[in-house]
Backbone:
């Protein structure tokens, strides 16, 4: 689909940076749907890795796991969550033990959970949108 | 298609996006996607490519360990943005960094950087000299005057027997095909040496007029074949 007028009709969740997504994919909403699919397919294992690293008290692994998921949020326009991951990586470096970042981890964990919901909703919306346009 | 590449990336969405950019460019043929170093190495043991899009942090071995183990010197574009890799990137002749996610325009800029600079050197491999473009002029260097050539990222340094150093925009890979095969041999991803100037060799090092040159495992057999060992 290469019709900007049609593309403008799609309303993203307010958490999603539409301008940023357009800079990556233009108005290719079919491809964008693929991106959301791919991200959701991998999401659970990426977040499981974060939780496992935290529960095992391995801050180096925790930082690496958060670093790994960070760009995923960029690919789906959740740039604020991407930045939050960046901040959390810095906290991992300065923290001496997992207890020191318990509060920050809880905040991040909640954010990851909320983000998954947003992604699932957007994916459904995109599927409907693209099927109506085809 | 002018370039062949592989993508070494464990994040599926990033690998897919890269593949899409490559296809869109019409300039890069993706010959494979590997989510870990072991699988990539297995492919590269029996295939060569011009370019590797390489993530650094992956499960198991990291991206630089892959570059240590392959027997040729492809161009490399890192798909990471960690400044702590800058020194390694220089050592491994990395052409550019792409911070994920990147725009298609940024991808194309990275691609521009890896096109071989064909205008900075003039020679044919049978000639007894080469011309290099440096400081805005063409300078003639006789093969016999060159001790070795060293990679400096997107540049190379020619070191000559009168202890002069000439820096020009080029790559070891490009030069390897252009310099006289009678005189020169690539001994490491970052070095081409003049075989007639080698003073001695110990373990994985060559010595030329007091300069220590590393010899990679992959190139060591070639070096022995070319030396006049009696």
Residues:
């Amino acid at each position: 689909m290469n019709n900007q007028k049609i593309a403008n009709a799609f309303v993203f969740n307010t958490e999603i940076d539409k301008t940023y997504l357009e800079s990556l994919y233009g108005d290719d909403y079919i491809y964008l749907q693929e991106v959301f699919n791919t991200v959701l397919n991998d999401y659970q294992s990426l977040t499981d890795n974060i939780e496992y690293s935290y529960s095992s008290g391995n801050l180096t692994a925790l930082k690496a796991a958060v670093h790994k998921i960070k760009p995923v949020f960029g690919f789906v326009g959740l740039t604020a969550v991407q930045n939050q991951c960046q901040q959390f990586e810095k906290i991992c470096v300065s923290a001496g033990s997992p207890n020191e970042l318990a509060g920050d981890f809880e905040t991040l964990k909640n954010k990851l959970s909320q983000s998954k919901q947003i992604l699932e909703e957007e994916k459904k919306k995109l599927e409907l949108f693209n099927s109506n346009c085809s | 298609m002018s370039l062949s590449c592989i993508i070494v990336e464990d994040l599926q969405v990033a690998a897919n996006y890269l593949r899409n950019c490559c296809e869109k460019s019409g300039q890069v043929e993706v010959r494979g996607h590997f989510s870990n170093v072991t699988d990539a190495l297995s492919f590269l043991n029996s295939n060569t490519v011009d370019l590797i899009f390489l993530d650094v942090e992956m499960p198991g071995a990291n991206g630089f360990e892959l570059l240590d183990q392959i027997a040729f010197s492809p161009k490399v574009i890192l798909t990471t943005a960690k400044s702590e890799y800058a020194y390694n990137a220089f050592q491994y002749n990395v052409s550019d960094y792409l911070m994920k996610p990147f725009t298609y325009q940024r991808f194309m800029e990275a691609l521009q950087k890896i096109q071989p600079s064909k205008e900075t050197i003039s020679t044919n491999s049978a000639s007894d000299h080469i011309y290099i473009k440096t400081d805005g002029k063409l300078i003639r260097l006789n093969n016999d005057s060159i001790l070795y050539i060293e990679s400096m990222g997107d540049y190379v340094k020619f070191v000559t027997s009168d202890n002069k150093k000439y820096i020009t925009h080029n790559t070891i890979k490009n030069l390897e095909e252009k310099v006289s095969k009678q005189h020169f041999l690539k001994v490491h991803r970052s070095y081409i040496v003049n075989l007639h100037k080698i003073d001695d060799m110990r373990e994985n090092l060559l010595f030329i007029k007091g300069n220590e040159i590393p010899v990679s495992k992959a190139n060591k057999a070639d070096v022995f074949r070319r030396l006049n060992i009696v």
